[in-house]
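Example record

One chain of 327 residues, shown exactly as stored in the release files.
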Amino acid sequence: MNNSKQDILNNLIKEPFINQRILAAQTGHSLGIVNRSIKELISEGYLDEEIRPTEKTLREAKEKAPKNAIILAAGFGMRMVPINTETPKGLLEIKGERLIECTIRQLHEVGITEIYVVVGFMKEQYEYLIDEYGVELIVAPDYVSKNNLHSLKTAAAHLSNSYIIPCDIWCEKNPYSRNELYSWYMVSDLVDDDSTVRVNRKQELVVQKEQAGGNAMIGICYLLETEAEIVRERLEELGRDSRYDGAFWEETLYRKDRMIVTARVVHAADAVEINTYEQLREIDSDSSQLQTDAIQVICEALGAQQNEVTNITVLKKGMTNRSFLFS
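Predicted structure tokens for this chain:
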């Protein structure tokens, strides 16, 4: 079953069929694809003549439904100066809610309560989540010297019908669902010169040539057991190779010139990665984390307003990276 049919089927599981035009708008597929897919789904036994999901569909949906989520929150967030000396990225506040709490709330809304948070830097600040939300914390022992491929490796045993979620993503609309019928990796429709992948016409994520610009990689992923098994094996394999000490976990998804999962493309405004002080300020200029001692000193010393402090970049990498450049 191709992705367009699975998208349409998944939508029909969530809510009753009204008409093809509404279904096309909800799934993002053309009216022609919707009409053709419905006919094929009926002939394949996934829909009945009333365009309702059959028992066959409901059994498959149950088998592929999300079981848990793994949130990656071990890193330094070095680009987040000067906030990162006081608060880990997952605990940044946007519109009155911490990033990681927003993610947990959205997961709870779709019935996912088995949540693992991989922690490292300032790990003690995440401990309140155990009592407040019932999550399990997993400590990444190598977070100082290795990247998030090794962080995910510490939680690899839990990978199965799982969401993998960076702690620094803010989604105004809930991107998670009670039903998922295939594995996917989320990218933005925004062109990013640093991206290593682009979406082709088959919704595949293919490796992009350097300097060519691809789809911005959001980092949220859903893995069914088949792909989760591949990722577990690759985490073990690459984790033994020191050349991958600085690698992102997405390295496990590549097979030759493309990813083993399909693309889920979202609008740039629907899922935002918060990497810098200025990105946080753009999304929520009233965030309490913007009121840092360092920024206040700059404003007082130079007679500047907070929003006039720009181009903030870390001067020295490492756990004690308190020095930064700015304009």
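Notes: The two ends are 53 Å apart (CA to CA).
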